[in-house]
Amino acid sequence: MSEYETITVERAGDRVALITLNRPKALNALNLQAMRDITGAAEELGQDPDVGAIVLTGSAKAFAAGADIKEMQPQSFSDVYAADWFAGWDALSRVRVPLIAAVSGYALGGGCELAMMCDVLIAAENAKFGQPEITLGVIPGMGGSQRLTRAIGKAKAMDLCLTGRMIDAAEAERSGLVSRVVPTESLLDDALAVAAKIASMSRPAAMMVKEAVNQAFESGLADGLRFERRLFHGTFATQDQKEGMAAFTEKREPKFLHS
Ligand code: CO8
């Protein structure tokens, strides 16, 4: 595994990898190097057949307090437009194994957007989410206006993006932004347990679930249902479908080969 400046990367149990944001002095603010590190590590891990799920986490105080304001401040329109600032994050959405965001503390602006690029969002009780870009005279630039609206609906998304207010973990769960809220002390263990559960399933099946659920955001219902059905048919070409169904009939636990 390569060396990274802004993150640490490690194996955390069977078939699970853990990426930890590591810019504590800047509350894990996401500079361009962090974008390169996170997307590079996730792409590399996603291609490893021995990795079935990736957990992305920050510190107890901050998952990430946004894009790096100090790095952005001197940029001109021409700079950010010509470099297509933030387009590099799209690489994270192309990672095909499930990504789990374990959010403690602040997930603001780009931090909230990074969490929303993940597939499962787990929040600690102390988590705070928001899109405060408007308070800086800008707007979300890493998908906030799009993914937040799809996740929690227009009314709440408008409220958050227009006022810049933060919501706590309970409101985030009520709104459908996160799937679980867990005690702050056990966040990482709980997230790793979810990742281990996912990673124990058939890897191709988990990848197909991710692809099929994400397709719901891209197509109409009839096309989405057809897409899902074709993937479902495809599972019958895997060894894991044979094993999973045989294990059920034989009343035993499946031993998936991830192929
Ligand atoms: N960028 C850079 N540095 C940051 C950031 C950030 N987003 N957030 C915190 N820091 C730094 C602080 O400057 C401070 O550094 P220093 O010690 O050198 O002064 C250090 O982290 C600790 O922060 P605080 O002292 O502020 O800690 P507090 O506990 O008092 O406050 C907060 C924590 C409330 C999280 C506060 O730091 C804060 O409000 N941060 C900014 C949150 C924010 O506005 N995020 C959105 C950023 S914009 C964005 O993500 C997308 C913009 C899209 C633009 C599109 C352009 C193409």
Describe the SSE topology:
Layout lengths: L6 E5 L4 E6 L10 H15 L6 E5 L4 E3 L4 H4 L4 H6 L7 H4 L5 E5 L2 E3 L1 H8 L2 E5 L3 E3 L13 H9 L1 H10 L2 E3 H7 L4 E3 L4 H14 L2 H13 L5 H15 L3 H11 L10
Parallel strand pairs: 2-3, 3-5, 4-6, 5-7, 6-8, 7-10
Antiparallel strand pairs: 1-2, 8-9
The structure holds octanoyl-coenzyme A.
The site of octanoyl-coenzyme A has 22 residues, from helix 2 and strand 6.
List keywords for this structure.
259 residues, six-stranded mixed sheet, four-stranded mixed sheet, 10 strands, binds octanoyl-coenzyme A
Describe this structure in words.
Helix 6 (144-152) packs across helix 7 (154-163) and helix 10 (203-215) packs antiparallel against helix 11 (221-235). With 259 residues, the protein is an alpha/beta fold. It has a six-stranded mixed sheet with strand order 1-2-3-5-7-10, sandwiched between helices. It has a four-stranded mixed sheet with strand order 4-6-8-9. 45% of the residues lie in helices and 16% in strands. The chain binds octanoyl-coenzyme A. Octanoyl-coenzyme A is lined by residues 26-27, 29, 65-70, 80, 85-86, 106, 108-110, 132-133, 136, 138, 140-141.
Hetero groups bound?
octanoyl-coenzyme A
| Rounded average pLDDT | 97
User: Strand sequence of the main sheet, in spatial order?
Assistant: 1-2-3-5-7-10
Largest sheet: 6 strands, mixed
pLDDT < 50 runs, ≥5 residues: none
Helix count from the secondary structure assignment: 12
Strand residue content: 15-25%
Helix percentage range: 40-55%
**Cα separation of the termini:** 24 Å
